[in-house]
Amino acid sequence: MYGLVLIFPVIAPLLGAGLAAILRNRPLAQRTVMEISVIVMALASLLLFLRVRGGYELIMAFGGWVRPIAISFRADALGGTLSLVTGLIGIAGMIYARADVAARRRRAGFDSLFLALLAAVNGAFLTGDLFNLYVWFELMLVCALGLITLDRRKAQIDGAVRYAVLSMLGATFILTGIAFVVAEAGTLELHDLRHTLAERELTLSLATGGALLLAGFALKAGLFPLHFWLPASYHTAPLTASAVFAGLLTKAGLYACLRVMVTLFGVELLPGFPPVLGIVAALTMLVFAVSALAQQDLRRLFAFHIIAQVGYMAMGLSIATMAGLQAAIFYMVHSIIVQTNLFFAAGAIARADGSFDLRTAGGIARSQPLLAGMVAVPMLSLAGIPPFSGFWAKFIVIRAGFEEGMIGLPLAALLAGLLTIVSMGSVWANGFWKSRAAGRIARPVPTAMFWAIATLSGATVLIGLFPGFLWEVAGYAAYALAMGGTR
Amino acid sequence: MSLLYALMASVIVASAVYMILSRNLVRLLLGMSMLSTGVNIVLFLAGTHLSPQPPLIEEGERILGPSADPLPQALILTAIVIGFALTLVLATLTLRAWRAERTLNTGEMRAAGDLGDPRLPGKREG
Question: Is some CB atom of chain B closer than 8 A to the CB atom of A157?
Fold first, then answer.
């Protein structure tokens, strides 16, 4: 019974994707299939989460083989939590798509690609096998490329080419890293790897494999020197797609970094890794918080903030303590919800204003005060203003750094946080407070967009008001990550 | 034998990287395809080569005797399929890029960079 719950978050959207592809010429039927699949997926994720949140674990081995040989699925508190958040994003995306995705985009295959993307993300969160993890990342890449080029505009194809090439290079790093790990440990089941390697001396080939895997997954996460694909492509995609990428793809990359690094090297990592990761995290936070200040296009501006925020999570990993991991996991959940919501907000502002450009925007606070209030929640949360989720997330990750006696990294995080406040202030002043240019009128924003934003803003407020619940779950998740699962 | 494979893999990867650094999209596509071949050879080398026997349990036996490691072979098979699929996707994008921009020089493809560039004047869009 619970085995079914474990695979349903992956199977339901995959089946839906196939069915939607068959119904290619019937947009309404496609939409119905997509919405039912997403709801089933989210319910399965919820059941899974309720089962594993207290530190339990569900395991399922496929094909009738015994466990270290079979490909296995495994949900612990970490995978279950992230799968639940994926379900939430799926539901919000489904609502937003009602307004953003017209019949033309559905005929181009939006529903199938969207469902397969969600399946791939859930698969990455729930798999118990390193090679299987790589396969889910490749599926994510293919679906993301399809979604970016949905309208076949010049800019979209251009962005997709850049995204494809760099991501495929990252995948090559991952595959080479896997080869080194297989040669060293002879197994790829994450649980088995953790226990095999815990008893062995560290070797050069394992460290090389770990470094390659880290490079590959850091590219997928968009960490600093490997980020170029992200600002080149995210702003060209249809809004619903950009929003789901913004929430899930980079965070899936970071999840893989956490999972693989801790599985291979334990919580304390290798002596060489934390300083390098620390520098990468600090540069990621600072460089992109500054770059965001220069942007005028809302989609680009928020794309730079995605990268900056991933820096905070990498900082949690580079602290290399249980508290650091717990903080990184808490930050991930907060960030998935907020980043998706910000892209939704960008789409709503463009709908009201006719442009994503902050220079020509203005007056939303007066013309659509309710929408402005809803959008203020993720913006304040991103800036780290209490009582929203971003405040707690930043607070605990910076506290974890100071507790370890670090100075530079937490200070960099504080400075980046300050720059984020400035950037959000500028968005608010330009988009919401500035009076609208003469002769321009505010166009109505579709209700579906409003409700999608309201759903995610509600989640952000809930995390902000009851951070203790998520903190406790993140604690179990960090424990499951460190132990490689309960035996 | 391993040395021969290692040398072959390094030559293939080096040529692939040279192709990928080109600005021509078709060369880049061929380079990516070669790169995945090179990595597959590395993956093949990762297995232990104790014996050329296929990993099948002999009739009447209960356990597997010395045999080739089946894991890397399964991995390579999957990696070949995935590499093929991704090459196709990239080839489709290349064709689309040629049709949309009438150039294969990635240096001249500026559409994504120009979209929302803060240095360009803002324009309204739908």
Answer: yes
Asked if A357 and B122 come within 8 Å (Cβ–Cβ), the reply is yes
Contacts of B110 (CB under 8 A, 6+ apart): A158
Complex-level ipTM:
0.90
- The DSSP line for B24-86 is BHHHHHHHHHHHHHHHHHHHHHTS--S-SS-S-PPTT-SS--S---HHHHHHHHHHHHHHHHH
Tell me, yes or no, if A172 comes closer than 8 A to chain B by beta carbon: yes
Q: Do B116 and A168 touch (CB under 8 A)?
A: no
Contact flag A355-B123 (C-beta cutoff 8 Å):
yes
- How does pLDDT run across A104-142, given as a tens digit for each residue? 898 888 999 999 999 999 999 999 899 999 999 999 999
Nearest CA to A118 out of A51, A61, A37 is that of: A37
Closest CB to B89: pick one of A164, A233, A297: A164
Residue ranges of domains in chain B: 2-49+69-104
Tokens 């990867």, residue? B13
User: For the structural domain made of B2-49+69-104, what CATH number should be given?
Assistant: 1.10.287
Task: Report whether A346 contacts A427 (CB < 8 A).
Answer: no
Q: Is A39 exposed, middle or buried (0-12, 13-18, 19+ CB in 10 A)?
A: middle
